[in-house]
Amino acid sequence: LQPDADAQARAGEPEPAYTVLEEEVLRLQRELKGSIGESASSTEALRASNEELQSMNEELRSATEELETSKEELQSVNEELTTVNFELKNKVEETARINDDLSNLITSMNIATVFVDRQMHINGFTPLSALIFNILPTDKGRSLGDITHRLDRGGNFTEDLLHVLATLQPLEREVASVDGRWYLMRVSAYRTKEDRIDGAVLNFIDVTERRAAQEQVRARDERLRLVAESTRDFAVITLDEAGCVTGWNKGAELMFGYTIDEILGEHFRRLFVPEDRAAGMPEQELQGAREHGRALDERWHLRKDGSRFYCSGITTTLVEGNAQGFAKIARDLTERRLLERQREELLEAEKQVRVQLEAANALRNEFLAVMSHELKNPLNLILVSAELIGRSPEVQDSPRLSRAADAIRRTVHAQAQIIDDLLDLSRLQTGKLALNRSPVRWRPIIERITDALRKDAEAKQLSLSVQAEDLVLFADVVRVEQIFWNLASNALKFTPPGGTIEVRLARDGPWALLEVRDTGRGIAPGFLGQVFGMFQQGDHPPTTRSERGLGIGLALVKSLAELHGGSVEADSAGPGKGAVFRVRLPLLEGTLDSNVPGFQLIAHGACRSTHPARG
C-alpha cells in the first residue's frame, strides 16, 4: 500500500466513497507499523534476554562441570578416607593384639614389674606385683616409697632407683622376702621412643627354686670335695691347663708319697716312669682329654721313694668359668696286676698240661683200639673151642661138662661185648665211627632184646615189662640195638631181686622217646652229672660180683645218641630209690614206595636216602 502515491495520482479526480475506509486503513497501517516497531523492539529485547540466558546456561554448564570435578575430588577423598579408616582399624586391631600378647607375655613370664617416673611415682604395674608390694589399682601416681612391701631390704629401693637414674646402668641383685622366698631384682632405666629417660622399671623374678638347687649343688660339691679330700683308696688330682698340680687329696698323698706342699705347682709328669716321660705319655694323656673329654690309662707310675706301682686312671677336662684344667682319678692295681700275671702263667701251664692230656688221651685211645683188637683174637679162639667142646658127645652126655661149656660161651660173649664197646668208644673219640642209616622200626628191636634178657630177669626174680609204640627211626640199626642193650642190661645189673624194670617207647613231638625205669640202687644227686662219663660208676661198692663193670656202657649210649642227633638224660630220687634213663632219637617222617627198588623218605631236617631198608 502506498497511499501517498495513490493520492497524488487522483488529485484531480473526485473523492470516492471509500475514503473513510482508506483512512481507516491508513490508521490501521500506522498502528500496524507501531506494532511492528514494538514487535521489533520486543524481538531485540527477547534476543538480548536469550543471549543472557545462553550466557547463564554456559555459566551453569561451567558450574556443573566444576561440581562434577568437585564430586570426583570428593569421591577420591572419600576413598582415601576409607582406606585410611581401614588401615587405622587394622592398626587398632594390631595394637589390641599386641596389647593382648604383651599382657599374656607378662602373665606367662611370672615376673612382677613396676613402672615409675623420675620422681618415683607409680605409672603402672603387673598383677604379680601384689605378691611383693601392697599396690592397689588406685595407687597409680603415688610414690613407691609410700607403699609397703614384703622384702627384707627395707628402704634401699630409693637408693637403687636414684643410682640407676643417675648412672643409667642396670642394677641386679637377689633379695629375700619375709615369707622365705627369693627374688632376682632388676632395676633399669625407662627409655621412650625418642630415647628420653622417663623413669625406671623394677622387675622381680622368683628364683626360690633355682637358689634351692644352687644350694643343693653347692652342698653336693662341698660333700664331693670332702669325699675327694678324705678318700684314701683313690688318688684325686686336679691340674691346670699346662698340667701343673693344683689339687691333691689324701689318697694321692698315700699313693704317690708326696705331700700337697711338695707337689703343688709341679708338673704331673713327675709321677710317670722315665720311659713314659721320654715317650711323651703325660702330654699325650692331656691331649687325649682335650680332644675326647676323657683319657683312660693303665700303666706303671713312680712313687716319691722311686718304687713303681701299677695304676689305672682316667683324666677328664674341667671347665669352671674362664678357667680350664684337668682332673685325674687313679687307683692302685699293683696286686691285681700281679694276680693277672700269675693267672697268665697258670693259663700257660694249663695249656701245656692240656696238650699233654690230649696226647695221653690219644695214646689211650690208640692203646684201647690195639688192646681190644689183640684181645678179640684169643677170645674168638676160645669161643670156637668152647663150641667144639660143647658139640662133642662126651660133653653132651655130661650135664656138668655141658654147663661148663655153656658158661665159657656166655663169658666169652660178655667179654666180646665189652671189647666191642671199647672199640666203638675209641672210634667215636677218634671220629672214625660212621653210621649206616636206614629206616628202622624200633619196637621189634626192643621186643627181641627184652626176650633175650627175660631169662636173666627171671633168674634174679625181676619183673620186666614193655610198652612200646611202633615208631620208625632213620638210624643205624646196630647202634640202636647197642643203645637199648646197654640201658636194659645196666638196669638188670643194678636192680636187686624182687625189683621191677619198665621199658616204654612213645612219641614225643618229633622225637622217639625211650624210657628205661628201674627200682635199683639209684644214683646220688651229685653223681647225676657224671653218670655218662667214661669209666664212671657210683661211689658205693657193688654188692655182687655181677654188678662189677668198666663203666663204659652209659658213655657209649650218650655218644651214640648224640651221633644220631638225639640226647640222653638220667634222673633219680637218690640212692636206693631207682633210676630212669631217657633217650630221644629223631623220628622218620615219610612214605615208602614199594614199586621201585630202594626207597625215598624225608626225615626231620630234610634228610633223604635211597639205601635199602633194614630191620
Automatic annotation (TrEMBL):
Question: What top-level branch of life does the organism fall under?
Answer: Bacteria
Q: What is its EC number?
A: 2.7.13.3
From the UniProt entry, list the residue stretches annotated as the region Disordered: 34-76
Q: Which reaction does it catalyse?
A: ATP + protein L-histidine = ADP + protein N-phospho-L-histidine
Question: MF terms per GO, please?
Answer: ATP binding
Q: Which residues form the PAC domain?
A: 169-219
Q: Which PROSITE patterns match?
A: HIS_KIN, PAC, PAS
* Bias-annotated ranges (Basic and acidic residues): 58-74
Q: The Histidine kinase domain covers which part of the protein?
A: 370-589
Is Lyase set as a keyword in this record? no
Which keywords accompany this UniProt record? ATP-binding, Coiled coil, Nucleotide-binding, Phosphoprotein
All copies of the PAS domain together span 220-293
- Which InterPro entries does the record match to this protein? HATPase_C_sf, HATPase_dom, His_kinase_dom, HisK_dim/P_dom, HisK_dim/P_sf, PAS, PAS-assoc_C, PAS-like_dom_sf
Task: State the coiled-coil residue ranges.
Answer: 329-366
Official protein name in the record: histidine kinase
Please tell me the species this chain comes from: Variovorax rhizosphaerae
Q: Could you read off the lineage of the organism from its UniProt record?
A: Bacteria, Pseudomonadati, Pseudomonadota, Betaproteobacteria, Burkholderiales
